[in-house]
Amino acid sequence: MSPPAPRLRRALPVLTTALAALLCALAPLPAAADAPAAADGSADTAPAVGDGPADWTARPAGGGADRDARPYVYLEGTPGTALQDRLAVTNPGRAPLTVRLRGDGRAGAWIGFAADTVTVPARTRAEVPLALTVPPDAVPGDASGEVVADDGDEEIRVPVRVRIGGPTLAALTVEDVEISGGTIRYALVNRGNALLEPRLAVRADGMFGTLLDRPERPLPLELAPGRRVERTEPWPDAPALDAVTVRLRVTAPGGARDEAEASATYIPVAPAVGGGLLGLGGLALLGSGAYRRRRTRRGDPEPPGAESAGDRQPTTETRPLVKAGPLVKAGAES
Questions:
Q1: Which residues make Cβ contacts (< 8 Å) with residue 96, sequence separation at least 6?
Q2: Tens of pLDDT along 16-45?
Q3: Nearest to 240 by CA among 208, 197, 269, 280
Q4: Is there a contact between 244 and 266 (Cβ–Cβ < 8 Å)?
Q5: pTM, entire model
Q6: 183-241 per-position pLDDT tens digit
Q7: 251 CB-near residues (< 8 Å, 6+ apart)
Q8: Left, alpha or beta for 305 (phi > 0: left; psi -120 to 50: alpha)?
């Protein structure tokens, strides 16, 4: 075989390098377990799941599996009774976990714990007894609150629902309706003793017909007894020029119902300002013309301290009208 040509010899290193780079790009990456050690000799590995405090949980006790856990603490009783339950705190990490427990909200203020501070060993689940005492003067109906578990870095809130025995009253009002541009503002107040899930319908009528008609729909909130919530309703296609009346109707299970309305006038800003300036200019012209006519009829007022024509002293002033020349006698010779 004849030796390769000079051009081929020069191209062989380039082709070899390109082939090696292609093979490296196609080769699979090494697994995390096969990664080389760091420069200081320690292995560069990610922390195992469950080491951090973000993985701990707090929820109502009951059921061995997570899917069987209750979504919230639910208790029923009459005024003056003490109700019992338990809170489960699970620590799947490798270090002990210490959490502080407290109640929040109306029903949360009625809760007492067997221990306000609980330390849970690693990979352990602890159940903490709690007691909720319904005040003797509590109004029959529904009350809500929360159990708060806090480890110092984050907190977990567990909802608490209490049904207090006795006659219930569902009462709801909509108040303080205001219209501001493309936004309708209002407030909802629970005037009864039952937990309410309100629904809202909105209607707006203008001078020439209906401008807005939104059917009744549920609102994303639970209104506890005595609670007031301020909300807004967007109206992006509000009119630019019209006089409107907005009516709000709210309802809730149990027969709660109320309506309220508010009125507003929409006027474009630029025409309104221009019309106002034009009106002011017209009034200024009319006032100026009337003032001039009045001065013409009555004469100009004399300035203070001016003398009248009768009080002026007569003066004699001699002025030559024609410049006189030298006198010449008749018959005189020059």
A1: 119, 120, 121, 122
A2: 555 555 555 555 444 433 333 333 333 333
A3: 269
A4: yes
A5: 0.49
A6: 999 999 999 988 899 999 999 999 999 999 999 999 999 998 889 999 999 999 999 99
A7: 172, 198, 199, 216, 257
A8: left
